[in-house]
From TrEMBL:
InterPro entries: Peptidase_S8/S53_dom (IPR000209), Peptidase_S8/S53_dom_sf (IPR036852), Peptidase_S8_His-AS (IPR022398), Peptidase_S8_Ser-AS (IPR023828), Peptidase_S8_subtilisin-like (IPR050131), Peptidase_S8_subtilisin-rel (IPR015500). Residues 253-517 form the Peptidase S8/S53 domain. The keyword Protease applies. This is S8 family serine peptidase. Signal peptide: none annotated.
Length: 626
């Protein structure tokens, strides 16, 4: 019988507490068989038939009002116990449900196994993070998965050794979760990853350096806050001066924008895709929607331009790479970042985020240690990463991954060009853009028109939604600007793209800007970061400042001889920034003049700048650098 401990150690070090009366259940799709015997019941009907109560998006939060885990009521009163923000969604999927259970978990697991037969997959416990109230503090560590980091030198025999414990490696997923390898329990209804993790760390320490649980939050970590009021103009695209930018570039087919989200409507007439994408829960094709959020984000970044259809994306000539979360787990996030980097993405747009343990805000639950290596992996391959700061209107924390130093933290601006707050004059008093230290830039985040899943399954019954909001809508505006820059100059590094976006931002709003230590790209403030993005100015700055690789700099003179141009090695990633476009006369004959010269170029072919010293006479020279 599986064990569900009353407390569980999270990878961050936080101690999670079992939440009684709740569980997560997954069932397999309909089991094929003779028509008379085939199990064709849908998931909700199936679970209800064995006494489990699926929790729907419009249901009262667990334990709201009535202490009984079986309490059933309408939507909670705003501000009441367990109140849920508008449009917040329970992290259910086609085959997974968060449920209320009338008995203890081992008994419930046995009931699921006995009564559902071949359709039963696993039953997971629900745990609460300390200090976070309501549904936002609830998570399910998946009971069937262990992420294992092998001891150095033990990679080759790891799978064979762990097979002794009923673990099978999913090699396709291990490719995208490095340095961790992805192992699945053979029978999670008999034993759980919760108990097996401690066993491995004790008994297999010669091959297992670390073992972590894959964690799924109860609430999806998307940062959408829409309402029902229509506002049918694309003011956001106009405000960031994208039309002027389109005179320079509209993006191109080689500049791919990965939308790491709930997948995209692959048949939408206003979206173009670089490939069908992937479902991150299975690592199999394709990136079809598991919700509505991704299609809307994709349209803001890259809806087709000049096609007499619908809306115009910021980088409308660039294709989208659709990456679909299945269960919104930390391991899925890591896999999505690595997949994007390996499949040609120039930019990743992430309109989601979670909070860290102990911060007292939700959603929470992810183990950042699982995701951090994937962020580094993508950045090392010059992928520009953009993520939403969050919609909680707080100045204490920005959501992760926007807080990661290699990620552009995207806040939301209002129609009056200030930070979107609960007091902004737009009628949306239930949310505001987070403004903890570290905001990079802001972009339009209210009343945004964009693409929607077609038909009745979307936010509307049509192909477009005109009220997409939140830092969810701000982030793809910034990602679109990044795609324009990369299409204009493919040699720009991820750091150079970020620098250009920050240095060219408009200093709008009522909060004063000033110089801040360790923020080198101009004046800023916590509310707006460096300001509201401006696509046209970013491209103009890229054109004038020539942030380029060393091997691309050449000096042309009308007369014979050598010239020099002053440069500043301020980027630190193999690029330099030209600080003066003029080329003053240097020495007339380099080859015949004694002295030491500094030569730069990519001498070893690794794409980074190398510095060499050239002497007229044999011997070595040195030059001090800082």
């Amino acid at each position: 019988m599986p064990e569900y401990p009353s407390t569980l150690q999270h990878g961050s070090g936080a101690t999670l507490t079992l939440e009684p009366g709740l569980a997560v259940v997954t069932v397999r799709p309909e089991v094929p068989g003779p028509a008379a015997d085939a199990d064709t019941r849908d998931v909700d009907e199936l679970l209800s038939s064995i006494g489990l109560e699926p929790i729907a998006d419009d249901a009262a939060p667990p334990n709201a009002g009535d202490a009984s885990p079986n309490a059933s009521a309408g939507p909670p009163t705003a501000g009441g116990p367990g109140a849920r923000l508008p449009m917040t969604r329970i992290n259910n999927s086609d085959t997974l449900r968060w449920v209320r259970v009338p008995q203890d978990l081992p008994t419930a697991a046995a009931s699921v196994a006995d009564q559902l037969g071949d359709r039963a997959e696993w039953l997971g416990a629900v745990y609460r993070f300390p200090g976070v109230e309501g549904e936002a503090g609830l998570v399910c560590p998946l009971p069937n998965v262990l992420l294992v980091r092998p001891v150095e030198g033990a990679d080759e025999g790891l799978a064979t050794r762990l097979a002794e414990y009923g673990l099978t490696e999913d090699e396709g997923r291990s490719r995208y979760t490095e340095p961790y390898r992805y192992f699945v329990l053979t029978d999670p209804l008999a034993h759980t990853a919760y108990e097996l993790r401690d066993v491995l760390l004790a008994e297999a320490a010669d091959v297992v350096a670390d073992a972590r649980l894959e964690t799924m939050p109860m609430l999806t970590p998307t940062t959408l806050s829409p309402n029902d009021t229509l506002f049918a103009t694309q003011w956001g695209v106009q405000r960031i001066d994208a039309p002027s930018a389109w005179d320079i570039t509209m993006g191109d087919s080689s500049t791919i924008v990965a939308v790491l989200d709930e997948g995209c409507d692959l048949t939408h007439p206003d979206l173009r895709f670089s490939e069908p994408g992937v479902n991150l829960g299975t690592m199999l094709p394709d990136g079809s929607p598991t919700g509505n959020h991704g299609t809307a984000c994709a349209g803001i970044a890259a809806a087709a331009l000049d096609n007499n259809t619908g809306v115009a994306g910021v980088a409308g000539a660039s294709p989208v790479l659709p990456l679909a979360f299945q269960n919104w787990t930390d391991a899925e996030c890591a896999a999505g970042l690595r997949y994007a980097a390996d499949h040609g993405a120039s930019v990743v747009s992430m309109s989601f985020g979670v909070y860290g343990p102990g911060e007292g805000v939700g959603p929470t639950g992810w183990d950042f240690t699982v995701i951090d290596p994937a962020i580094q992996y993508a950045h090392d391959r010059n992928v520009v990463l953009c993520a939403a700061t969050g919609n909680e209107d707080i100045d204490t924390f920005n959501r992760y991954p926007s807080r990661h130093p290699l990620v552009i933290a995207c806040g939301a601006s209002s129609e009056d060009d200030n930070r979107k707050s609960s007091a902004s004059p737009d009628g949306e008093n239930w949310w505001g853009s987070n403004f903890a230290p570290g905001v990079s830039v802001v972009a339009p985040g209210v009343h945004i028109s964009t693409t929607d899943r077609q038909g009745s399954v979307g936010y509307t019954t049509g192909d477009y939604v005109e009220t997409f909001n939140g830092t969810s809508s701000a982030t793809p505006h910034v990602a679109g600007v990044a795609a324009l820059l990369r299409s204009f100059d493919p040699s720009l590094s991820a750091t150079a793209v970020r620098d250009l976006i920050e240095r060219s931002a408009d200093k709008v709003g009522t909060v004063p800007y000033g110089d801040v230590a360790n923020f080198p790209n101009g004046t800023r403030n916590d509310e707006m970061g460096y300001g509201r993005v401006n696509a046209a100015k970013a491209l103009q700055l890229a054109d004038s400042s020539q942030v380029v690789r060393a091997k691309d700099i050449a000096l042309v003179r009308q007369n014979a001889g050598w010239s020099s141009i002053p440069v500043a090695f301020s980027v630190g990633d193999g690029t330099w920034q030209v600080t003066n476009g003029s080329a003053p006369t240097f020495i007339g004959s380099w080859a015949n003049t004694a002295g030491v010269k500094v030569v730069t170029g990519d001498f070893n072919g690794n794409g980074l700048t190398d510095i060499a010293l050239v002497r007229q006479n044999a011997g070595w020279a040195s030059i001090p650098v800082a």
